[in-house]
Structures are given as structure tokens and as C-alpha cells.
């Protein structure tokens, strides 16, 4: 497999896009040994003009392929990099760790079960097991995304973020209610998140799609960071919200705790990138 070396000669064919190649070289500069880099470091490594490097980094950031640490201002690969190919998602060891437990949930309740990670103010599905809700038109696939405030998965992760990081994520949200049940303001969302922390799980009651509700619990790293979340989705005619929180939620929370115990130390390295989570990414 060819890699983009900083000093390698670039093809001069007419169909070769140099700007695209430059952007890919920026992404290829990040490795397990170099999980975070600043613009100056990238420019020196790639022997590239700093202003051009900044433009490339800004573009990749805007598109979601890079993320920035708010404290250090250094950049790291974003979860969006995984969407470049399902093969990367299929090899995500987190799925392998969680899959037997997700299967047990779907066997117990007969309803759809999902596993997701966070990307900024969105959740991205990395595993989807279809149950009865699939026949109701609730159809998500690996790589699909949802606004973080409209998903029980998103609220489960958001509720347990460090306070400053949670505030930054909420600041990115565009509150456009899809149904009358969705949070319409930061204040409403904060109230939901407080309830999530009090209960130990998040709920979504027809906030994304009418006729569908779900409960979700976070997967916590050994250092207490929400690296992912798992949920169970059910149709409203089948179960009331009270029944779901009393029957489904306890089993879900227990399942999330079991999966969390399997996560390696350092797995909370923000969005599953970098050497601390190399064991998860494979």
C-alpha cells in the first residue's frame, strides 16, 4: 500500500489533483505516534507553506475530517475519517467487543439495537442490528448520522462529557425541532441531560420520528469518558415510556456496564483516535 511521504515526487498527469493530494498528505501525517499536530508542525513535516497548510487544515476541519483540541489548539483525525470506507468501520474492534452483548439485547427484546460514537454535535452509527422497528420504517445504517440532541444515543454521551466540553458541543447545536417533543433550546436540552445523569440512561420519546421511542446508555472508558453509547428502539404502540424505562432500561444499563468493563485503559482518548485507543481501532 502506498503512503504519502512528505518528500515523495508527485505525478504530473493531467488527471492528478494536486490540492486533493495535499489534503490527503495532511491526513496521512497523523499516526499512532503522532495523534495530534499543530499547523506549524504539519507545515514543517510536509515541507509546505504554513498559510497553505492552514487552508488545508481549515478545510478538513470544516468537513469533519479533523478535530481540534480546544485547550492545545492542535488537530487530530475526526471520526469522519472512518466514513471513507465501510471497511474501516467493519474493522473497528469496539464493534467486536460490543456485538455479542448487542445480540443478547435483540434476543431479549426483539427490537432494534444500535451502537454509536460521537462526532462533534452528531452521533454516528457504527453498528445496527435490526429488529421489529425496522419494519416501521426506522432504518439506519452504519455510517449514518443524527443530530446529537435528537438521539438517545447522543444524549447518553453528551450528559457524561466534562462540563466544558459539553458546553462547547451544545454551542454547536442548531436547535431545529423535528417534532413537538424535541428540545427547542439549550435550556431544555440541559434539563434532559440532568435527568439522564440522575437516571443513568437517556430517553428519546418521539423526538426524531413520531411513533418511535428509545433508551440509551453510555459506554464509559476506565477514565470515565463516554466513548460510545448503545440503545434499544421500540415502537410506541408496543410499549409505553414508563414500561420502557422500567423494563428495558435496567437491562440496557447493565449491558453497557459489561461492555465498558471490556474497554482498554485510555480508551477515552476523545472520539476513539490516537494511540490511547489504538487497541479499539485495530
Keywords:
single chain; 282 residues; alpha+beta; six-stranded antiparallel sheet; two-stranded antiparallel sheet; 10 helices; 8 strands; 40% helix; elongated; disordered N terminus
What does this structure look like?
- With 282 residues, this protein is of the alpha+beta class.
- Helix content is 40%, strand content 17%.
- The protein contains ten helices and eight strands.
- The strands form two sheets. It has a six-stranded antiparallel β-sheet with strand order 5-4-3-8-7-6, sandwiched between helices. The chain has a two-stranded antiparallel ribbon with strand order 1-2.
- β3 and β4 (122-129) form a beta hairpin.
- α5 runs antiparallel to α9 (241-262).
- The longest helix has 22 residues, at 241-262.
- Residues 1-9 and 268-282 have low confidence and may be disordered.
What would you say about this model in short?
The protein has helices at 18-28, 39-46, 50-63, 86-90, 93-109, 152-158, 163-172, 186-199, 241-262, 278-281; strands at 66-68, 75-77, 112-119, 122-129, 145-147, 202-205, 212-220, 226-235.
Task: Note the topology.
Layout: H1 18-28, H2 39-46, H3 50-63, E1 66-68, E2 75-77, H4 86-90, H5 93-109, E3 112-119, E4 122-129, E5 145-147, H6 152-158, H7 163-172, H8 186-199, E6 202-205, E7 212-220, E8 226-235, H9 241-262, H10 278-281
Helix pairs in contact: 2-3, 5-9
| Estimated share of beta-strand residues | 15-25%
**Structural class by sheet pairing and helices:** alpha+beta
Low-pLDDT segments: 1-9, 268-282
Taking all residues together, what is the mean pLDDT?
Answer: 82
Spatial separation of the terminal alpha carbons: 17 Å
Rg computed from alpha carbons, rounded to a whole number of angstroms: 20 Å
Largest sheet, in brief, is: 6 strands, antiparallel
